[in-house]
Design goal:
The protein is mostly helical and 280 residues long. 73% of the residues lie in helices and 1% in strands. It contains 12 helices and 2 strands. A two-stranded antiparallel ribbon has the order 1-2. Helix 3 packs antiparallel against helix 4 (68-89), helix 6 (123-140) runs antiparallel to helix 7 and helix 7 runs antiparallel to helix 8 (179-198).
């Protein structure tokens, strides 16, 4: 089955359209939500997992013998991605559980990207993305607790490995019938990486198409939620630090010149007390 024929198949169009609607609503809900109690946040919570499950349905409907190993790996990754979404939405601190689920998601995607290409065939590409991953972690370092630093480093390196393998795979498949789909995969991953820095929700919409033997299956990188939350924590910590720097001179001034306790500080006397003093 050809690449274009798969995408244009009538049986896949409803899933694709529904996925685009859910993806757009998930981004809209995330942008309009002012806080966790905002009703727009619930729009994001309902549509983001739904979009992931629609991708899973798309993958399962397009499994064919030449690409079954690739599609199965993608399906496993999407299951872990849906679980990661659920952990991040639950009340309480399930951040580490979500981190592990998304790490397994990217490991599954790396496995899929090695079904028709060698792993790390271009070490220079992997070195570049390792440096990018470490720079992202460095920007978040102040917001990470000591027990979260190693897991986040591992997660970021896994993201870098997935991006590097997608680019390496595109270079290996250059000049083959699968060159176009491999290129889509590489472009999609790189777009999701750049989206981390400018818009966390944009990473959730970074879809790329790649399937062996011309059958296309979309993969959604799931890096936005976790790194966006870490970035928000870092911004909050920077805001608190700035507020403390602004308030420190005021506190020092009050320490040097404490307010005098007296009549002026007590304010005007009550009317009953003033009347009794005048006529006592």
């Amino acid at each position: 089955m050809s690449y274009g024929g798969t995408l244009d198949a009538e049986r896949n169009r409803p899933i694709q359209l529904f996925f685009l609607v859910c993806g757009a609503l998930a981004i809209l809900g995330s942008l309009l939500a002012a806080g966790d109690d905002s009703p727009w946040r619930w729009l994001h919570y309902m549509t983001k997992p739904t979009a992931t499950l629609l991708l899973l349905a798309f993958v399962l409907r397009n499994l064919t013998p030449p690409s079954r190993a690739y599609g199965t790996a993608v399906a496993v990754g999407l299951v872990f991605a849906a679980a990661g979404d659920l952990f991040l939405m639950l009340p309480g601190d399930y951040f580490l559980a979500g981190l592990v689920c998304f790490l397994l998601t990217h490991c599954a995607y790396i496995f899929a990207l090695t079904r028709d290409a060698r792993l790390a065939a271009h070490p220079g590409v992997f070195a570049i993305f390792a440096l990018i991953a470490l720079s992202v972690v460095g920007g978040l370092w102040t917001s990470l607790s000591s027990e979260m630093r190693i897991p986040v480093i591992i997660y970021a390196l896994a993201l870098g490995a997935m991006a590097a393998q997608a680019i390496s795979r595109a270079r290996q498949l250059s000049g083959t019938p699968w060159e176009l789909t491999a290129r889509y995969a590489a472009i999609g991953v790189c777009c999701s990486w750049s989206a981390i820095r400018c818009s966390p929700t944009a990473a959730s919409a970074g879809i790329f198409h790649s399937m062996r033997s011309g059958c296309s299956v979309p993969i959604m990188p799931r890096n936005g939620s976790l790194l966006a939350r870490l970035k928000a924590d870092d911004n909050h910590n920077r805001y608190l630090a700035g507020s403390q720097r602004q308030l420190r001179p005021v506190a020092e001034r009050l320490a040097r010149n404490p307010p005098v306790r007296g009549a002026a500080s007590r304010g005007p006397e009550p009317a009953q007390r003033a009347f009794a003093r005048a006529h006592g």
